[in-house]
Structure formats: C-alpha cells, structure tokens
Predict the structure of Triosephosphate isomerase.
Amino acid sequence: MLIVANWKAYIEDFGKAKKLVSLSKRLAGKTKNELVLAPPAPLLGAFSPKNKSNVAFAAQDISATTGGAETGETTARVYATAGATYAIIGHSERRAAGDTDAIVAEKLAHALAQGLTPILCVGERERDTTGQYLGFMREEITIAIESLAPKERSKVIVAYEPLWAISATSGASVIESNDLAEMVLYIRKVLAELLPGKSSRHSLVLYGGSVEPDNIRGLAGSTSVDGFLIGHASTDPHLFSQLVKQLD
C-alpha cells in the first residue's frame, strides 16, 4: 500500500512537524507499506534534503509556471531540487481555488518533466442516480493525461477523492466498500483506454475521503485500491500510527 499523508496547512509549527517526521520514519522502518509525507513547502525543504529513511516526500501542489518573474510561485524543479519525489496535482481544494482541467494537465506535464511522480486527484462533487458522475470522472482523467506521451501517462498515480465523502462528519456520507470497488474498476477501465498496451495494469489507484482507523482496513481489503491519500488524520500521531498499522 502507498500511504500519502497530506498535511495541508494543519501543521504550522516546526516542533510538531519534526515529531511527525520522526514518527513516520519509525513507522516506515516497521511497515511493509510505503509512506509519503506532503508537508507545507518550507517544512518539506527543512526535512527532505537530508532524508535517508524509507519515507518519501511530496509537494502538495506545484506552480503552473516553469520559473522566471513569478513572485510567490514554487515550481516543480524547486520541489525536485529540495528532495521531493511525488507531487499532488489537482487536489479538490486547489481546483476550488481556481485550477481548471487545463491547468491540472499543465502541472502534470511540469511534474513529469522534473522527474516527480504525479498523484492526480479526481472526484465527483455528488453521486447522481443516473450515472452522470462517471462521465465527469472520465473527462477529468482524460483531459489531464491525454496530452502526455504514452510512457508518461503510465507514471501517473490516480487518487480518487469524491467531494461528498471528504471530511465527512457523523451522519454525513462515507463511501461504502462496494462503491469504492466499482469506482476503482472504472478508473482502471478509463486508464486502459488511455495507456498503451497492458501498462495500465501497473497504474496505482489511491483513495482519499474520510479515511479513519476503523474503516481503512475494510476499504483496503475488498476494493483492489493500491493505497490512500490521507488528510487531517495524518497530522494526528496516534491516528496516523493506527492507520498505518491497520494495513500491515
């Protein structure tokens, strides 16, 4: 399993970040799963360059620009130089802030050009009864990777994050295992149409959306998902430890 811990902007204190990184390194030494940390950019720069552990680092986002007179932008090359090996692209929160499908596609290309493995986030806002959300999903994936070379397409990891299941609270909708299993199969079908030969069989599909210690094992065991993109729970040392241990 690939476990990607997206810290978002929850961790703003260096001391807390250091403790989480140390915990993750200890967990990585004991688990069979691969751990990837996605801290805010300055914290990634503080911990990633000297990292010699089994923990990998990811950018939470990258700029659509490739450099130059672009104040405030952080390019894919900067992240690669700082030691990141993954980049989260098209997260729902970035899309809500203005990233269009075209911008997402551009960022994917920039990430790949710098040797970063992109984690492409896709997901519907609501699940209708007529299946229109499937067409929406197909379009998001297709627009994102259709301009890439065939070999580049196969390097993209897809993270399914349905907006209606993200940050679900008590009484809110949480995805059922059978629904996730069907969506994972559908994503693989779309990828099979876009990737050359049988290369789609090696593509990873992750899930993100209210993943907790009490549901992660069930979601992993019966859905053929390859891992998880975890948000707030990954910033709580106890919860994150339990999440990792549940998958061992």
In short: Strands lie at 2-6, 34-38, 56-59, 86-89, 117-122, 157-160, 205-207, 227-230. The longest helix spans residues 177-194. The CA atoms of residues 122 and 174 lie 17 Å apart. The chain has one domain: 2-246.
